[in-house]
Design a protein that fits this description.
Elements lengths: L1 H42 L1 H12 E6 L6 E2 L5 E13 L1 H5 L5 H8 L3 H9 L7 E7 L1 H9 L5 E10 L7 H4 L11 H5 L1 H4 L4 E7 L5 E9 L7 E2 L4 H18 L3 E8 L5 E7 L12 H4 L2 H4 L9 H11 L7 E3 L4 E4 L2 E4 L6 E3 H6 L3 H9 L3 H10 L26 H8 L8 H12 L3 E2 L14 E2 L3 H15 L16 E11 L2 E15 L6 E8 L14 H19 L12 H8 L2
Parallel strand pairs: 2-8
Antiparallel strand pairs: 1-6, 2-3, 3-4, 3-5, 6-7, 9-10, 9-19, 11-14, 12-13, 15-16, 17-18, 18-19
Helix pairs in contact: 10-20, 13-16, 13-19, 15-17
Amino acid sequence: MKPRSSENDAQAKSYRWRSTVVLGLVCLGAVGLAVRAVELQLLDHGFLAKQGDDRSMRVVKIAAHRGAITDRSGEPLAISTPVDSVWVNPQELNDNIDQLPKLAKALKQDPQFLARRITSNLDREFLYLVRHMPPEQAAYIKSLGIPGVNLLREYRRYYPAGEVAGHVVGFTTIDDQGQEGMELGFDQLLNGEDGSKRVIQDLYGRYVENVESIRAPRPGRDLVTSIDLRIQYLAYRELKAAMQEYRAQSGSVIVIDVDTGEVLAMVNQPSYNPNDRAQLKPELYRNRAATDIFEPGSSIKPFIMAAALASGQYRADSVVDTSPGFIKVGPKVFEDESNLGVIDLATILAKSSNVGTAKVALSLKPEQIYKTLTGLGLGQVTGSGYPGESAGMLSSYTHWRPIGIATLSHGYGISVTPLQLAHAYATIGAGGIKRPISFERVSGPVPGEQVLDPKVAHELVQLMEQVVEKGGTATRAAVVGYKVSGKTGTAFKSIAGGYSTDKIMAVFAGLVPASHPKIATVVVIDEPSRDVQQGGTLAQGGTVAAPVFSNVMSGALRLMDVPPDDLQSVPAERLVQANAP
């Protein structure tokens, strides 16, 4: 029996030894787990929490809404519409590369091209795939459940008036930053400030919970412009029709409210549609009315007459002897189409006499002419704040010589923008008060600087009426029921070595109604072809630009409820029709 007892003792000792070892290992493991738990909870807590947040928590942008641009009556010219942009985490998407063909098909992109974009940006965590996608299309992309594919809410600028108001409104970049026109000039006002928030997202990038708001978005402010979209459309339509009829290179129309300095319409041709980014080319979106300078030709002659009246040397009924129909100044001969003889100032303007204007200018002190021109705003910006506006060119009178004065008197050797020229005529129409040009709607009348004696301005408006009456150079600028004051301009364009003999700038600048001017308008058409209706003769301001003025003003005066001041000139049958029930 003893041997069996020894065997049992040995087994008992072996069991105790193994139990002790196992217990020791368990205790050691427990101690290790406890140490590791302490290490994770206390020593590595910050690191692990950060890693967890990096994988599930995101700071996302809250896009700010850019302010709208409207015309003076609230009609939208530029608005922001919500869109979604598709972006990916290249690292995460690369781990699910088998999903790429499905994504490429949904985006209508080449799978190989998409794969190259993903694999070449693996060092990034954010990559745009498509910007400004309609929300319903973007939602379909998101519904595919492809890891690493996300949406970002943004806003896309939309221009309801299209190319009708394209030049004056301008456009923004794809990131909603003002790039041209009023979008750029008023960018600080229109542009909001994006906000941000912290969110928790799941494995598929879906937002599970909003954790906190870091910064609330600040929307941009709306801009109410001075533009009257109805008049803007009229000007656009008439200018485009004239461009097509005369196959001109370019053209501009500016309409200004005399009492306030507001720009009611500003159009150019060729135009562009700001909704189509493929059309955003400098030669199309450049606002010629504010940036391009040209020699104004005879449209500047009323300013010479203003200087003459302001000098006290001339009165409204003064006469000038233009015989024998030409005048020689230095080596240059200036001539009229015929010998007009002794004529008054009104006839000088009506017949656009180069001889008469030159004689008047040469009889004045150069500083008197310069003071009048600068007072009317020539050689300086209009104060509108419009981006890229040119100041034109007007040299100091100290450099003038007699031949330069004679040349200047009929619009050569000086350069202006269409906006500057319209501003000058608006100043005359306002009784000599120069008001700053405004692209924002204002409540008038607006105070300004008295740069011309009111009596001189009034007499000048009356003198210019004969330009539009029978025998004048701008009979086609007449507006039924209204008296019109204005002046034509036909300036030959400068070329290498001198001036062209067949390339001109056709201009008409006018005020209506002449008895109490409300609107100043300038029409400029660059390089019109010859006038077929006049037997192929060279087109001029009175035949090309004046009809555009007449058509635009006929509609604008009616839209603005400006009462007629010349009903006696309206045919009786038209009055009967107007009063018929």
